[in-house]
Specification:
This protein is α/β, with parallel strands linked by helices. It folds into 2 domains: 3-177 and 259-330, Alpha/Beta hydrolase fold, catalytic domain (Rossmann fold); 179-254, no CATH class. It is 37% helix and 17% strand. Helix 6 (190-211) packs parallel to helix 8 (230-241).
């Protein structure tokens, strides 16, 4: 069973409650904290995979960063993590999931295959990690995933077991049970978040149908257009685009909960009990499923991928990111 550490740090007085935390964490943070060097890899299925690199000392560990749903290397939490990684004397590589990368003007870069990305797609992560390992076998590889990216990372770590090239990993605000998270986002104020994600997801899926009519003729455009929940979108778009029978099948096969027991790399999972994206019961179940190499740091507060504390907004700190960076610096064996 995974070890769990409870946390006693207080949240910022000016960002109390899960929604204040979550919304400030998305809209109130500083942006453009670091600069990256871009690389475009060609995947085994002839698509483009956009990486953003941040260099460090020659012998520094490299941290692979995985963003959340509809994020990219410009996401505020990725920028915050990257700045902390730079201060710690390490390098970083951000994997922009397919269809998520943006150009210098902020415009989305479309991918070249009739597909998008999803919470259980570990092939691209494996391809990137293996590529980095082959380029410099002496450089230690670490990894951090946030939200959806954390689910992908935990699933990949479980699939790899003792074969993982990554020496230590960490996640923040993972939706360990995708079905439970999807249902949770259909209730109360959480529907605001679902609606926020649905708009760009629908645009991307409809664009795929427009650009690849032959490959997507089995998909109903109107069902995607009028989907009102993330479950409906996943049922009508995510599942058929990526080879799942249904949203239920997608959630069952992709939830990281199933893979936690097989992780054999020191892994820290940071979560909050008030995460508006995940019911507390799912978090408790995840803590019970983790292997001895998985540790949970669970805060009573933090919202989703926020964890804001500090006396004043202009001097805010982000507890989860500090915790993760401390874990990576310690490089547990």
């Amino acid at each position: 069973m995974a070890k769990t550490t409870a946390v006693a740090v207080r949240s910022a007085w000016w960002a109390r409650g899960p929604h204040a935390q979550t919304i400030w964490g998305r809209y109130g943070r500083a942006r453009h904290l670091v600069s990256f060097e871009r690389e475009i890899l060609t995947t085994p299925d002839a698509d483009d995979l956009v990486l953003d690199h941040m260099s460090g000392p020659a012998d520094a560990p490299r941290v692979v960063l995985l963003h959340g749903l509809e994020g990219d290397s410009g996401a505020v939490y990725i920028q915050g993590l990257a700045r902390g990684i730079a201060k710690a004397g390490m390098s970083a590589t951000v994997l922009n999931f397919r269809s998520c990368a943006r150009d210098a003007r902020g415009k989305l870069i479309p991918n070249r295959r009739p597909r998008l990305y999803h919470s259980g797609d570990t092939k691209d992560v494996d391809f990137v990690v293996r590529t980095l390992e082959a380029r410099d076998p002496r450089t230690p590889l670490l990894a951090v995933g946030v939200s959806l990216g954390g689910n992908v990372l935990l699933k990949w770590l479980g699939e790899q077991g003792a074969r993982s090239p990554v020496e230590a990993a960490a996640t923040i605000s993972v939706p360990y049970d995708l079905a439970a998270a999807s249902r949770h986002l259909e209730r109360g104020f959480a529907r605001f978040y679902a609606a926020h994600f649905l708009k760009p997801l629908k645009r991307k899926a409809l664009d795929i149908l427009r650009r690849f009519p032959r490959e997507t003729e089995h998909i109903n455009r109107d069902r995607i257009r009028f989907a009102q929940t993330l479950y409906a979108f996943d049922d009508y778009a995510t599942a058929p685009l990526h080879g799942f029978h249904s949203a239920t099948d997608y959630y069952s096969r992709s939830s990281s909960m199933r893979f936690l027991a097989d992780i054999e790399v020191p892994t820290l999972c940071v979560s909050s009990e008030d995460d508006p994206f995940l019911p507390p019961a799912a978090l408790r179940a995840a803590r019970d499923h983790g292997s001895e190499d998985v540790r949970f740091a669970v805060n009573k507060w933090g919202g989703h991928a926020a964890f804001i504390w500090g006396r004043w907004p202009w001097r805010a700190s982000y507890w989860a990111e500090d915790k993760v960076l401390g874990w990576l610096r310690s490089r547990p064996k």
